[in-house]
Specification:
Structural class: mainly beta
Strand content: 25-35%
Helix content: under 10%
Number of helices: 1
Distance between the termini: 39 Å
Radius of gyration: 17 Å
Largest sheet: 3 strands, antiparallel
Number of strands: 9
Order of helices and strands: EEEHEEEEEE
Strand order of the largest sheet: 1-2-3
């Protein structure tokens, strides 16, 4: 069985004409699963450099996070990023702010 295209779980099972993931609940057809595996999303920073999990990036402009009184200053280094497939491409931890999501268009790879 192919792994789940959303969470990469190895516990996917066949449910009639579809495949189902018990961990995230995603359902897909076997043909769509093969097509999804072929299309891998590329994440690029503001300068067009390819980003990968674990990279270190620098914030290129001052960012004011919602619900926080502070500002993430331009030039702040963010280590060990994790790329996710959502509205904000990067999950990370920033000293003084904690866990946060950033858009790849506001960072530059170091």
């Amino acid at each position: 069985m192919p792994p789940c295209p959303v969470c990469q779980s190895a516990y996917a099972y066949e449910d009639g004409a579809h495949l189902t993931c018990p961990e995230c609940g995603h359902e897909w057809s076997p043909a769509a699963g093969a097509a999804a595996a072929e299309t891998v999303r590329e994440y690029r920073d503001a300068a067009g450099n390819l980003l990968q999990d674990g990279d270190t990036v620098t914030v290129i402009k001052d960012l004011k996070p919602k619900g926080s009184g502070g500002v993430i200053k331009q030039g702040t280094k963010v280590k060990n990023i994790r790329l996710v497939d959502s509205d904000h491409d990067i999950d990370c931890k920033i000293e003084g702010f904690g866990a946060m999501s950033l858009k790849s268009e506001f960072v530059r790879k170091v």
